[in-house]
Design goal:
By secondary structure, the protein is an alpha+beta fold. The strands form two sheets. Strands 2, 3, 5, 6, 7 and 8 form a six-stranded antiparallel sheet that branches. It starts with a strand and ends with a strand.
């Protein structure tokens, strides 16, 4: 993990890759828990037997499950010591570019695209690519917005 002393030190990395998270395994229990939390019980996510029978493939993670992992994965990549609080401000774009089969491992690759003063803090625009171990095409590409305050 990269630790920056101040928001200014982090902002100075604009245009650069900040780092890569650890791999996280996507197992059926995690998928089922997400289905329970969101009410999305689509069979391609939660019914391994039907998915295998009808598609000849394992279940896949919800796209929004992959998206929901971003705070955890990004938290493994960097921190700013002087930050008193942070807010997930939103996303400019999110694209689900590949399926994540059960049993896969994913990780995030973070690039700082922009840093601008906003509302007494600093707004950071990040490109986050969620990679799938052993696959060329990522699971997700997002441009996220985070507000950080010292």
């Amino acid at each position: 993990m990269r630790a920056f002393d101040t928001l200014a030190a982090y902002a100075a990395e604009k245009g650069k890759e900040i780092g890569v998270s650890n791999w996280v395994q996507i197992n059926q229990d995690r998928i089922n828990q997400f289905a329970e939390a969101t009410g999305d019980h689509q069979w391609i996510h939660v019914d391994p037997e039907r998915t295998q029978k009808e598609l000849g493939a394992p279940t896949i993670a919800h796209g929004y499950l992959t998206l929901s992992l971003l705070p955890m994965l990004m938290g493994q990549i960097s921190s700013v010591k002087s930050v008193s609080r942070g807010i997930n401000y939103g996303s400019n774009s999110v694209r689900f570019t590949n399926m994540v089969p059960v049993g896969s491992k994913v990780r995030a690759r973070l690039t700082l695209k922009d840093a601008q003063p906003k509302a007494g803090g600093m707004q950071f625009t990040n490109e986050v690519v969620v990679e799938i171990e052993g696959q060329e095409r990522p699971a997700l590409v997002a441009e996220t917005l985070t507000l950080l305050y010292e």
